[in-house]
Amino acid sequence: MLTVQTRYAIDPNAAKAMDTTALRDNFHIGDLFRQGEVRLVYSHYDRMIVGGAVPAGKSLTLDEVKECGTPSILDRREMAVVNIGDDGTVTAGGETHALSKGDVLYLGMGSGAVEFTGAGRFYILSAPAHRAFPARLIPIAEAKKLELGEAQSSNKRTINQFVHPDVMESCQLVVGYTQFAPGSVWNTMPAHVHDRRMEAYLYFDLAPDARVFHFMGEPDETRHLLMKNEDAALSPPWSIHCGAGTGAYTFIWAMAGDNVDYRDVEMVSMETLR
User: Fold this and answer.
1) Residue 46: CB partners within 8 Å, gap ≥ 6?
2) How far is Cα 224 from Cα 228, in angstroms, rounded to an integer?
3) Which of 75, 128, 198, 203 could be disulfide-bonded to 45 (CB atoms 3.0-4.6 Å)?
4) CB-based contacts of 166: which residues, under 8 Å, 6+ apart?
5) What are the CA-CA distances from residue 84 to residues 22, 31, 33, 230, 256 (Å)?
6) 161 domain residue, yes or no
7) Which domain range does residue 81 map to?
8) Contact 237, 48 (CB under 8 A)
9) In a domain, 272, yes or no
10) Which pLDDT score is estimated for 264?
């Protein structure tokens, strides 16, 4: 079963006037992972697709998505699949890839239909592509790791870069995930923006009663979304994106836009934040 929801782009002036319900309707994504279903959100921010597939021991196939306007989703797109569950497999382009928890699979333009099987919980990210790159399975051992922060400021974390120029080549997708050390909860503070690229977040490995405050909005007009396990957020190019949790957590970040330069950001001073 395939379900697709469209999210339109919101300008910062409109976002200023939104209450909690409106903010969540436009920027928060929940209920992506239903057993036996593929659920997608088609965003007008750089045409990013965010989704989930849970085969639950059976088989699910992702092929035509009407919103893409092509016979098959990857005819003019690339895709990254992150397994956040137990072992599973993904088949595309005549190849079958076995993914353990934390593994990331890149599929290039023209890979055809994508089949999900096994006990995995597959997080799907896709953006338009202009050329084909070969499929690549990237286990966590092959990710580039950055150790940042410190316990004293509650932000000791490991950034794992997978679909990233220092690891592999892609058209515009940049994907990785950040893991926090016990006792650390703050991410990306001081905050930053990157007007050339949108970003999507998925928070996972949270206890049932744990929450993350995902901060968004213009630097001088901040808002927040309250996130539980396996909730996602769309972050517009004009918005900050940082978070603080009630305990350590992991989040997947993915970007699409004009470039793949992870460092192309504008820092926001603490004095600017409101």
Assistant:
1) 127, 128, 172, 197, 198, 237, 256, 257
2) 13
3) 198
4) 144
5) 29, 15, 10, 9, 21
6) yes
7) 2-267
8) no
9) no
10) 82
139 Cβ contact list (under 8 Å, min separation 6): 100, 102, 103
pLDDT surpasses 80 at 113: yes
Number of domains in the chain: 1
Q: Please report, for the domain that includes residue 154, its CATH number.
A: 2.60.120.10
Mean pLDDT over each residue of the chain, to the nearest integer: 95
In this structure, is residue 274 part of a structural domain? no
Give the pLDDT confidence score for residue 64 in this predicted structure: 98
Phi, psi of 260 (to 5 degrees): -115, 25
Model pLDDT for residues 210-229, shown as the tens digit of each residue: 999 999 999 999 999 999 99
d(C-alpha 166, C-alpha 175), whole Å? 12
- Band (pLDDT 50/70/90 cuts) for residue 188 is confident
Question: Looking at the domain assignment, is residue 108 inside a domain?
Answer: yes
* pLDDT, tens digit (0-9, with 9 covering 90-100), for 16-54: 999 999 999 999 999 999 999 999 999 999 999 999 999
Q: Can you read off the two tokens belonging to residue 95?
A: 């190849």
